[in-house]
């Protein structure tokens, strides 16, 4: 009597986008930061030691060894910094999108106390949640950049300094259309990202054999 092959155990649920996207963003940012910081460290090391190049074989050996250590350490630090920054912004956007989407769905549920299962499945709100989250993240990025500019602005001159035209604050040097342009760009890109999720869910619901 032939024995049938054992049925493999079903796979668990796929990781949530809130977990998967920041992880991918960190890996991408780490790779980008590693490459760019390593190249910058190599050029900086060459410029700092251009006037004292070694003249012996042993000197060149220690020169290359020190350069490799400096480049590797700078690349790791730059990769971690860029990856963490990119993962933080990505996770914040997706968390805000999920919160806004939950709020929209709660508002719709209050407007329709007893929605049917079909109406609940057809409801696509990711595009709106993504647009709001994108605009919010763009506003946060603009505020953050303005805060960094203010923190690096030069101090006021001492009273004994000659009277000259005062240096305008960093916030005044920013272009006025910059913040609205960032908000519009965040609104558009967030809506596109959320709409892509809605399109994926719609196709998944319409494709045959989805319950197979």
Task: Give the key terms.
2 domains, 72% helix, mainly alpha, single chain, 6 helices, 212 residues
Can you give me a brief rundown of this structure?
The chain is an all-alpha fold. Helices cover 72% and strands 0% of the residues. The chain crosses the membrane at residues 14-35.
How much strand? under 5%
What is the subunit organization of this protein?
single chain
Number of domains: 2
What would the principal axes of the Cα set say about the shape?
A: elongated
Major sheet, described briefly? Answer: none
Mean of the pLDDT scores?
78
What is the chain-wise order of helices and strands? Answer: HHHHHH
User: With helices defined by DSSP (H or I, 4 residues minimum), what is the helix count?
Assistant: 6
Distance N to C terminus: 29 Å
Structural class: mainly alpha
Topology, number of strands: 0
Q: What would you report as the Rg, rounded to the nearest angstrom?
A: 27 Å
Give the helix level as a range of percent. Answer: over 70%
Q: Runs with pLDDT <50, length 5+?
A: 8-14, 165-174
Biased composition (Pro residues): 155-169
Transmembrane segments: 14-35
Region (Disordered): 155-176
Keywords: Membrane, Transmembrane, Transmembrane helix
